[in-house]
Amino acid sequence: MSKREKSHNSFSDHRQLSEVARLFLKLGFIGFGGPAVHIAMMQEEVVKKKKWMSEEHFLDLVGATNLIPGPNSTEMTMHIGREKAGWKGLLVAGCCFIFPAVIITAIFAWLYQKYGRLPEVQPFIYGIKPAIIAVIVSLMIGLGKKALKTIALGIIGTLAAIAVLAGLNEIYVLFSAGFLGICIHLVKIPYRKTNGFFPFVLLQLSDAYIHLSDFKLFWIFLKIGAILYGSGYVLFGFLDAELVSKGLLSKQQLIDAIAVGQFTPGPVFSSATFIGWQIGGAFGAIAATIGIFLPSFLFVALLNPIIPLLRKSNIMSVFLDTVNIVSIAIILSVIIEMGRFALLDWRTITIALISFVVSFYFKRLNTAFTILGGAVLGYLLALL
To answer: Where would a tag sit more exposed on the chain, N or C end, judged by fewer CB atoms within 10 A?
Structure first.
């Protein structure tokens, strides 16, 4: 390879990494609302605007994030970065998405430790939540059309949503639906045509508690990050068991950590930064943050290369199709639950309807403006 070719390839790699960094830094700053809205924003940016990948492959990556522990939307950034710019893209995408949330959360953690209370943000959250719900529903309609390939998948997705709303564990529903999809496929297709394989390895750390005084927080959050499936909001149940019950954190501090996770952008897992700061100051925040996000980088690095192989396998392709539609069903079931607590009166319903119309009919408008508009409208209506 000539020096000119090497220079051209180096420039191309640098440009791709810059594109990845700019996109996920932006999403890290404007990504209010939790994993569902993050994934919806990524779909809008990566598939519709930038056309980095097809909707089918995007859905495969969404399904893949549900098969491994860790924060789904953060892992999705890593998958996209890996697809666009290799392993360097994986690291850049993940770090850029996490960084804004960690910095903002660290500032809140310092203020909280200094003054003992959080700033008043409730009037803005009042309008943000219904706007987020509307945006996710709008974007999931388009994504769901691509995932809904057969009537059987539609039935499985509906049953999965009902099961999650009934209180069943999301990961059990996900895998059970995937195996159900395979069973239906095997019944319809002769055995000799099912040339597939089943290469799944789910990495789990032992539940044993590791006593290392200088790295106590790191190990606690490393263990949580390595075994926590499903929505980032499940995190707080683990934290209650690991920290509150052992006297390392007060119940009020945990409640305030949940609040910080809700009104700051980026991954909900950045609450680990807030909690780490309360327990061990700045170094505790760093240890907790690294601990909870590190497993996701490792899991995605292991899983991403085999996704195309899964799609080439007949059986695993059926499994992925089923997981994809169930992932969307789970997101919509989460939205229904959010709606029960967010759509409380005519004001919030009005905000949701306006946000849905804007998001659905003005597809080129960045969703961040819709959510920001919801926050402002919520603040104004709350004054009435």
So the answer is: C
